[in-house]
Amino acid sequence: MAVFTRTTRNLIVRIEEFFDNIDLGLLVFREGVKAFLDKDMETFERHISKIEILESNADKLQRSIENEMITHSILPQHRSEVSSLIDVLDEIIDTIKSSLIEISIEMPVIPPSLNHGIETITEASVSAGQELIPAARAYFVAPYTVREKLLKVYFFESETDKLSRSIRKTIFQEMNDLDLAQKSHLRYIIHHIENISDTAQKAADILSGMAIKIIM
What we know:
With 216 residues, this protein is an all-alpha fold. The chain has six helices and no strands. The model has no long low-confidence stretch (mean pLDDT 90).
């Protein structure tokens, strides 16, 4: 069952562009965190500028998509679900932007011994978001493949949780040279990173339900 008719080509293009912005935003976040850990502040600030542009583009595309869905031929029963999916995907890039800006403002002091752990959490959380994009694209062309593609989203979200628990345990139980304020600050930064995979899982739940309905 097709979600779109032949008259909605522009809408399809805008949705693809929206997905592209989210995908690029995830890459920028990963590289931005790496630059911060490497103390390469010039590159870090450059990544913030990139994410601000991508987030602005995504917001414009989101509004355009919503207008197109109202005025053109997307099947009415799918409008609300597609809109909900776009909203949650937009939350991902909003989270990316706010997280990098928070890091830029607060400038957390991260012990070098935690660098590898934070890079690993970042990679897992970003991977959850990255695996979501092909599943979202598939919904519009091959919805019967969506649930299989979503398995990796759930895998990486679970891995992010495990890694987060492990590094927080290290911070609070083993790093006695840090005071409670420093430990809490590090936990806050880790929570920001973890939010990406949590939001990806939220989108995956919505997308899974959408795919089931469309193939029935």
